[in-house]
UniProtKB/TrEMBL annotation:
Natural source organism: Catellatospora citrea
SMART domains, per database record: TPR
InterPro entries for this protein: TPR-like_helical_dom_sf, TPR_rpt
Record-given protein name: Tetratricopeptide repeat protein
Domain of life: Bacteria
Pfam families, alphabetized: TPR_10, TPR_12
Length: 273
């Protein structure tokens, strides 16, 4: 079986186990997904990582209620076993992230604001985990339409990730991509271009878990370049985004068609000038 199909089948099985109340079996199966999370969350214990892995697998299948139930069980387990601020904060953050993904952005935002205050007090403003919470807060604010506040939090998160994880980290690149993505909306497209270039360069040196992330970075850079009338380079970005996405999803995928159209528009604009 293809590795992608195998992972998908594992996620489907996890959802079925959660729906039938077999949490222990779901957690055992979730061990297969813990590896990537260990790199992203080096400060978390193995037990917390298993709950996160299972919840993430369920959420990727659209089973948001099951994912939330899993995280809340993990949270209760932490509370009953004594103080464990990092595990509790991360489980709470993930609950908020899934609430946002499930269309309940205001609920997620309220929870994130609460745990951001707690994490700043418990861990300090320059801690990696606090940076993750701040980054999620930016995402929630973007979903509620408060783009200027979201931009401010993404910038703060980027500074924290750069200081704690270094300039080649996936966390830092993601925060830069978020910044560049919002730069036009807050009236700063020119400022978004360097951020987009840096994010792209990081992922070219250290490929992300999903190739689609690099596609997003290319397309975002192309959009910003076109906005400031750098049409020739924008066309090249859209072409690379289309080629990478076509390799993953096929030439007929709607997003591939959109990137090809943007490439043609930018190329025509460049030819006129």
């Amino acid at each position: 079986m293809d590795p992608v199909d195998f992972r998908r089948s594992q996620r489907t099985e996890i959802v079925q186990l959660l729906r039938t109340g077999r949490m222990a079996y779901a957690l055992t199966l979730g061990e297969a997904f813990v590896g990537n999370l260990q790199e992203l969350f080096p400060f978390l214990d193995q037990d917390t990582l298993r709950y996160l892995a299972v919840a993430e697998a369920a959420a990727e299948q659209g089973a948001f209620d099951e994912a939330l139930a899993c995280l809340r069980i993990g949270l209760e387990r932490h509370r009953s076993s004594g103080p464990a601020p990092r595990g509790m904060l991360e489980l709470s953050r993930k609950i908020a992230v899934i609430l946002v993904a499930a269309g309940r952005a205001h609920e997620g935002l309220a929870l994130l604001q609460e745990i951001a205050t707690l994490s700043e007090f418990e861990l300090g403003p320059s801690d990696l985990q606090h940076g993750l919470i701040i980054n999620s807060l930016g995402t929630a604010l973007r979903h509620t339409g408060d783009l200027r506040s979201a931009y401010r939090y993404f910038r703060q998160a980027a500074e924290t990730f750069e200081a704690t994880m270094g300039v080649d980290s996936d966390h830092f690149a993601t925060a830069l991509l978020n910044l560049s993505d919002l730069s036009s909306a807050v009236g700063r497209p020119s400022a978004g271009i360097p951020a987009a270039r840096r994010a792209k360069a990081i992922w070219q040196r250290t490929p992300p878990a999903s190739r689609l992330t690099l596609v997003a970075a290319e397309a975002n850079l192309g959009r910003l370049l076109y906005e400031v009338e750098e049409s020739a380079e924008a066309a090249q970005c859209f072409e690379r985004a289309a080629d990478m996405l076509a390799a993953e999803l096929g030439d007929d995928h709607p997003e591939v068609v959109i990137h090809r159209l943007n490439q043609a528009i930018a190329a025509a604009d460049a030819a006129e000038h």
